[in-house]
Structure formats: C-alpha cells, structure tokens
Amino acid sequence: MLRAILLSTVALATPAFANNVFVSNEKGNSVTVLDSETWEVITEFPAGNRPRGITIAPDGSKLYVCASDDDLVRVFDAKTFEELPSLPSGPDPELFVLHPSGNPLYIANEDDNMVTVVDTETRQVLAEIPVGIEPEGMAISPDASVVINTSETTNMAHFIDTETFEIVNNVLVDQRPRYAEYTSDGSKLYVSAEIGGTVSVIDNAAETPSIIKKITFEVPGVLSEWLQPVGVKVTKDGSRVFVALGPANRVAVIDGETDEVIEYLLVGQRVWQLAFTPDEKYLVTTNGNSNDVSIIDVESLEVIKSVQVGQQPWGVVVAPDS
Amino acid sequence: MPELLNTQSRHRALRAGLVLSLAALGTIAASPPAAAQDVNATVFRVDYPSLLPLSRLDLPSDDRGFAGARLATDDNRTTGQFMGHTYDTKEITVAPEDALAAFQKLMDAGERLVVVIAGTEDLIAMADAAPDDAILFNASSGDITLRSAECRANILHIAPSDAMRTDAVAQFLVWKRWTDWFLIEGSNPEDTALADAYRASARKFGAQITEDRVFEDTGGSRVSDSGHVLVQRQIPVFTQDAADHDVVVAADASDVFDEYLPYHLWDAAPVAGSAGLRPLTWAPTHESWGATQMQRRFEELAGRAMTDLDYQTWLALRVVGEAVTRTTSADPATLRDYILSPDFNLAAFKGVPVTFRDWNGQLRQPILLSNGRMTVSVSPQEGFLHEVSPLDTLGLDRPESDCTAFEGGN
C-alpha cells in the first residue's frame, strides 16, 4: 500500500495532462467522469437507458454512448457534458468503433445480427451489414480498410471492407467472442472468447487472416470456468496486451512478442472493459459487480487505486490530450 | 396420424429502407469456399393426453418445443450463411399410438437427426428401431435409467436427468445448511422415481429426510372456483405433526399438489423441488450471461416466454449447428464423434460452456434454481468440487452410471 501511495505521488509530481475519464454505468443509466490526475470523480450525468459502449472523437470534442435500451447512440459535448442530438444506431447498440478520422461510426446491433454504419456529421445511416448472431466486438484496422465485428453466438470474427461494406473474411474463433483489438501496426488482431476462455491471435500479414495462437489462462485457486476474457487493450508499441478476465476479477498481462501471459493483476469484481490514458501510464478497468474502476500502473504492473463510480460500470474511454 | 406441421423456410427479413442493404448471400462471396452442407433435422413430439397444469402460467402452448427449435434453426442459418451450410427443420406431432410408425417413416425417408420430445418407453422404442447412424436428441425425458442401464448409444441427452435437477436443489439446500428435509411425494410411479432421486441426492450431499409422506392422487385435487378454501384446510392438516425439518421438498412429477404447498404448510418452512424453489434449465426471468438477448430473440419469434422445453430443443439443434460448423460435415457419425469429444464446447447462456459426458451421452449444464420471479441461485454451488468439472457434481458421475453403450463408458 505504501508503495502504491509513493507511486501515485511520483505520478502527481511529474507534469502531466489531466484527462477526463468517462465510465458508462449500465444499470445506473449514467456516465461517471473522473480526473486522470487525482482519480477523483468530477461528476456523473444521465446518459440514456442501459449505456454500454462508450467512445470519444479523436479531437476530444464529442463523447458517444451506446444507449442500448433507447436504440440510439447518445452524443455529449465532451467538455461541457451537455447532450447533443443523438445518432441513429439500429436496435440494441452494444459496442462500436469510430473511424480514425472520427467519421463514420460502426455500431454492433446485438439484437438484430447487424452492423450499422452511421455518419457522425449528417447523422445518416450509411449501411446495414448483416453479420452473425449477437454482434458485439468492434475494431477497425489502423489503415481503416477493414472493420472487425465479432458475433457472440456465431463465434466468428467478420472482416468487413470499409469501402464496399462487404464481408471479405470470416474467422471462426472460440465460444462467445466479445472484443477485438488490433496492434497499432495492424499486423495482429486479438479476439477474446468469453465462454471459450481464450484469446485468439489472428495474423493479418498473410493474404487470408488466420489464427496463429490461442492464449489460455490459468490462475491457481480460480476455477477455469471463471476465467472469461472480455476487454482487450494493446500498448502502442505492441509489447503488452491486457485482457480483462470478467468474474475471475483479474487482468491478465501478456507479452506482446511471445503472446504468453506474464502476470495476473487482482482488480475489482467482474472486470469488463479497459482503457489506457493517452500516455499509456495507466490502464483503467471497469468492475461491474463492485461498482468501481481499478487503476493499473502500466510500467510497474501494480493496481494503484480503485474508485467508486455508478451502478454496474461497463465501458470506459479516456479523453485525448487537448 | 402424424401431422407434418410445416417445413419452415423463414429467413429473418433484412431491414428495408433507404439505406444500403446487403443481401446476406452476396456478403459471403469472398469467404473461403467451405464444403456446402445441407443439414436436415426433425423435431418429433409425442403428445400424451394430459390434465391442465395447476398454474395457468404453465398452460402448454401448441408450439411448445417447436418454437425453441425454430430459434435454433434461425441461429444456425445465420451462421451457416457464412459457411455455405443450410439448415432445415421439420416439425412432427404424433399421438402415442402412432409414434413408432411415424418415426419409422421418418427413418425410411432418410432423416437421421431427430430431436425427440417423448416419454422413456417411446424414446427407447424409437432408439431401438433407428438405424445405427441416426442420432436421437432427448429433449424432455429426465429418466435416470436412460443415463444408466437403459442408455442407448444413439441417444444424446440434452434434457438434464432428474438426478441433475435433484442434485442441484440438494446442493443449494446443503449450502444453506437446511439439511433436515420433509419430503412430500406424489403417489404415481413417476413421483416415486423423483422422490427416489431426492433421497439419493440427500445421501450424496449429507442431508437427512426426517419425514416422508405420500400425497395420494385422488384425481380431485385441482383448484377450481372456490378450491382454494379446501386447499387452505387440507394442506395444513396433511402436513401436521411432522418431525423437525428445515425445508419441505416436493416430489410431484404429476403436478397434482405441488403448487398448494407454499404458505399452506402446518409449520413455517420454505418449499423446494416441484414447487417453490424449482430446478430449471431455463426460466423467462433468467437474464445473466447474455440470456436477456436470447429471451428477446425468442419472444420476438414466438410471442410468448421461453420455457425449459424450448431451451432444450434450442440447445439440441445448436449442438448440431455447432458440430456442423466446426467439422464442416453433416454426416451423423462425424457429428456424434465431435460432440462426444473433448473439443466440443458450446456457449448456452449459462456462464460456462456446455459439454457432453462421453460415458452416457448426457449434456453437462448448470441448473437454474428459480422461484418463478427470479433466478435465486444456480447450481453447482460453490464448494462442491469434482476432479473433472464442477458440473459433474450434478447427476450420475462415471462410476455411478451403469451405461456401457458409449466408448467412454465403464
């Protein structure tokens, strides 16, 4: 504990930007805003019914929230937290990914086996792409040529061409794929499978993407059934991969070179999604059953703090440096 | 005579509108060519004469079992369109006296994947009449003997055995330290079998049956009009002067008296088993582990809540779909080998993968404990350990099963 305090003091001493951290509270119907310097709650504001996926424009201007039970994407001014006109989303939006330019938004419609593409400026639906059952995880390749959707009951990662909106490849992964994350060079794609208990590493360099490795998890004293990978984040240099393990209350740390687990960090209960601060000094985890977020020091791999947020925190995003 | 209800050919309609809508088939053009497979299955339901249930909430719907199968077929088709696999499911209802002839006709027509909703005797007769390469998926019978001495190599049990259900209840009661049970059983043979399962579960997990009474099925105990007045007098008297107990366990497979027990007992005690806290594979209130999505999809399709039986038929056809997807084969022998192999696992909205016991063909799955309004708990309970899987603490474990028809058998 003393070490944790020291570490956070050191962090405070170095000149750093404070970034707003936005956490969607699925049961609380709200977004909690934290300060990434003090890790104190700044405010909490209503965000529609059953907010889950949450992301922010690359310029930090707008915050997007999947209001799953409202069947739309709620939009907020990321500075004033004032609500702006909503975006259509198709039914039951769960997760989404923004084009690196900030437009369009690619949304997984969990109840309708569809990915909806929405122009964030004109608020028009550009395309609806039929995918597998219960679409959830969304990712976009760094060159923005391919959008990935994972379908939880079909158990596939669908590769969607962003020009033609057609599926160009399907890769069968393990049971209940929840999240997809590219390395920043686009060479590898990580896909977590909650019930399969694995993270598939997909090689994108080859002509046809294929699974080159399946990462498995093992924690002494924890039933293997509880090791359920959900959220995944990769550092920009690709050296570390973090995987939220749901009801195991652990975040697995993986060596990005070997794709082997090197450590497990104990966090709050039912850890779900993850987000780095822009400098990648910290990783924030949402813990749905303990209603808090855990703050991980990425360098030392220590959990330095937990902060109470709203009811059943689901997603998290950190504002870019302004 | 058997009635062929319909060969379903429903595809989820793509949303129309001004947006660019892509035909599903067009989207797979660039996918790696997989071997095309046409997967034909049948849901075969034997309808026995039966009395009305005690609770209106349990009124049987005409599409019971079939609706779950339709959802699974839709699910399989959605996945199949990416694989080049098509799925078609026939629905057959038949009276008990015509069951075997109808089943034989189905086999003669070359059908090999059959989800069966039938009693033990009819199920065994069908299994024995089926060619070697047929697979019957038992979606309804919990008969323990089917998982033991009376097992058949061509029956895979999707429905949990009664032992799995009674073990699920017993684990929870023992976890609560409610170890003194007052067992009330019905007087029909299936009630006695269920009571025997509770007696075995009590022994297995260290509970004692301090009192055991039989509620005679006199045929006249159903509530009608002012029947509650009678029930309110009859049940307290029936349960008077019982030995000390923590809980009343009801074994009423015939649904003659179970719902009358809560609130009418002589001693204040919770009720579990056939009423009160019930062991179910599915409940319309279940919402953990993504189940909400399944409930919504089912309700949109069927216009009613999803039942235990619908879940079991859904699961049976999802087992088929998963095996076809992974093996890219529709050959029954290939599917059976894969389903019984350690590679098979399937997400089924229960938080853990469901798998099969290779010694008796029983699907392993967690059991919900529902009060009808909420999922109170889910068994297996924490602390009940097993060398292979916590799920094997429910039902007949390998040494307890007398089944020898399977490769992994004793």
Low-confidence stretches of chain A: 1-15
Q: What is the name of the CATH architecture of the largest domain in chain B?
A: 3-Layer(aba) Sandwich
Output the CATH topology of chain A: Methylamine Dehydrogenase, Chain H
Q: What radius of gyration of chain B results from the CA coordinates? A: 22 Å
Top CATH class of the largest domain in chain B: Alpha Beta
The separation of the N and C termini of chain B measures 41 Å
Question: Would you kindly provide a written description of the structure presented here, covering whatever features stand out?
Answer:
The complex is a heterodimer of chains A (322) and B (410). Chain A is mainly beta and 322 residues long. Chain A has one domain (2-10, 19-318): 7 Propeller (Methylamine Dehydrogenase, Chain H). Chain A contains one helix and 28 strands. Chain A has one helix spanning 2-13, and strands spanning 20-25, 30-35, 41-46, 51-56, 62-67, 72-77, 83-88, 93-98, 105-109, 114-118, 125-130, 135-140, 146-151, 156-161, 167-172, 177-182, 188-193, 198-203, 210-216, 232-234, 240-244, 250-255, 260-266, 271-276, 282-287, 292-297, 302-308, 313-318. The two termini of chain A are 32 Å apart. Chain B has 410 residues and is of the alpha/beta class. Chain B has two domains: 3-11 and 27-160 and 283-365, Response regulator (Rossmann fold, 3-Layer(aba) Sandwich); 163-278, 3-Layer(aba) Sandwich (Rossmann fold), CATH 3.40.50.2300. In chain B, helix 6 links the parallel strand 8 (180-186) and strand 9 (208-215). In chain B, helix 9 (308-327) crosses helix 10 (332-339). Chain B is globular and about 70 Å long. The chains are: A mainly beta (322), B alpha/beta (410). The A-B interface holds A 90, 92, 110-114, 125-130, 132-134, 151-156, 158, 165-170, 172, 175-176, 194-197, 208, 223, 225, 228, 247 and B 12, 14-15, 17, 19-22, 24, 26-32, 75, 78-79, 82-83, 290, 293, 296-297, 325-326, 345-347, 351-353, 390.
